[in-house]
Amino acid sequence: MPKGSQVIHIGGWKKLESEKVDKITFNRDIASVLGISPDDVVDIYGFTEQMGLNYPDCKAGWKHIHAYSDVIIRDESNLEVCGPGKVGLLEFVSPLPHSYPGNVVLTDDLGVIEESLCECGKAGKRFKVIGRAKKAEVRGCGDVMSEKLTKKPSYKPLSQQEERLTIYHSPIFLDDTMSASQQLDQIFCSLKRKQKWLANQPLEAILGLINEARKSWSSTPELDPYRHTGLNFLADWCEPNRLKNLLDSALNGQRAFLDNFLPRKDISHSSQKAMPRGIVSHWLSGNVPLLGMFALVQSILSKNANILKVSASESQALPVLLATFKGLSYTTPGGYTIHGDDLLGTLAVVYFDRHQTKIAEKFSANADVRIAWGGREAIESVSGLPKKYNSQDILFGPKLSMMVVGSDALDSDKAIRKLIRRAATDSSVFDQFACASPHTIFVEKGGLITPKEFAEKLASAMDKALVRLPTQVPDIGQANKIRSKIAEYAFIGEYWHDKHLRWTVLFDEGIELVEPTYQRVITVKAVDNVFDVVDSVHEDIQTVGLAMNGEKRLRFANEIMLKGAMRCPDVGYMTHFDSPWDGVVALDRMVRWVTLGGPL
């Protein structure tokens, strides 16, 4: 280029964050290619949200604030204003936008400001862009359009893929020189052999061994991260009497069918028994790490061997839980002893990514029962894998849950306090990542308090719930989503939130379900009549926590279940795992009913 020419660049680099070089290198390389001075490579910062205001580099590499705007640096964790020299989120203020509320824009860019005289000779406030906040979304127009139009890279053909299998627990020693497929074959062969041992164990012994293991969960340091995300409930749920009741309910009233042939009530001279199906393959979800344990315990009790594929985002909970069986033993009152190490021989825990098609097909094709938890794409992927013609599927797909409060449930101060405390618990457990967690609470008008007063009291209860159910401060990406909802409700309703955004309560009127934001963001909606909500219920609604009484409660439950809802527990118990779940009695699908003698 001719001497004295200048080159400007105006952004669009967000998607290339992983390939970035420092600014000096960037300018030097461009200058070298184009034959100009590095000082003539000018970066211009700006964004459409503030009418295209631009901030070019000065000769010293700073961007100076002009008369039409101001810049503020805010702390990434609590949004407090930072002083000169401190790195934080860049926030721009300008009076120019009039057609929409774009006067104040908080970006995902990290920067620093200075107010002293600049090396270029200019006075006044100036800033530099340091980088992007962690987990920040791609928002630039060019980046979004590129994402829409660019053809995604294709993956290598199956024949060229390198097989990868991560093994967290195996029932046998595996040779590292074997391929992933060979290792998986060896695991299935071992599970098939060990399942025969499990099939001959008395149910009483298995229940006792699980009870011994659960007693240690409260004192296992490695399980501390899960203590407030379901571990305590799981430990209570595994109490022997609760499991016995679960088994009796699922197995025609008698759990003894798992051990012996018992006479049938409907046909004389005939007996039946619940036989294990064999090997159960589990696909676990990462959003609620312990959820898969509920299905695993039932599978063990029905004397099946199990292999579990953990999530990439959460692979530690299951191996730690299973490790508590190591070295354990339990002796029944009758003198029979079962060892935890033998039970571990009927279990395997692995991980493979979604592109390992051959591994996934083998994982599915060897299963007598397939259990999968996850979103629509994950469930459809599992459904499409090859399987045995008689394999049983238990698929727990994407579900949404909500809460409905009738005016009759708001009839006394005592009832209101109790209800709101329980509503706060349901809205806090699992940080709303469980399919049974509510995101919308419909409150009927006409009670002792108004729906808005309900929301105000719920905000106070959510704050108190932090003591019982602590949670982490959301990362910047999630925090920005929450702030976006708060900004929306500043225009259309009311809002309350913790200063660290660990909980948020939103309020408006209407019968529409809200899209989940997660991280304890709960929306209270005022309705004239709870039955107006019925039309918002669909087949993807799993749990509806109910707070209403008598005939009204029965009628409402019947109407929403006809529309597709699965469960209507009392408020405060929405996330308590029970059976049936998603309309399925899982235990019944884990056994084969066989008969002996008759019929006469």
Automatic annotation (TrEMBL):
It holds the Pfam family LuxE. One of its GO terms (biological process) is bioluminescence. One of its GO terms (molecular function) is acyl-CoA dehydrogenase activity. It comes from Vibrio cholerae. Residues 2-150 form the Acyl-protein synthetase LuxE domain. This is Acyl protein synthase/acyl-CoA reductase RfbN. It comes from the Bacteria. InterPro entries: CoA_reduct_LuxC, LuxE. Keywords: NADP.
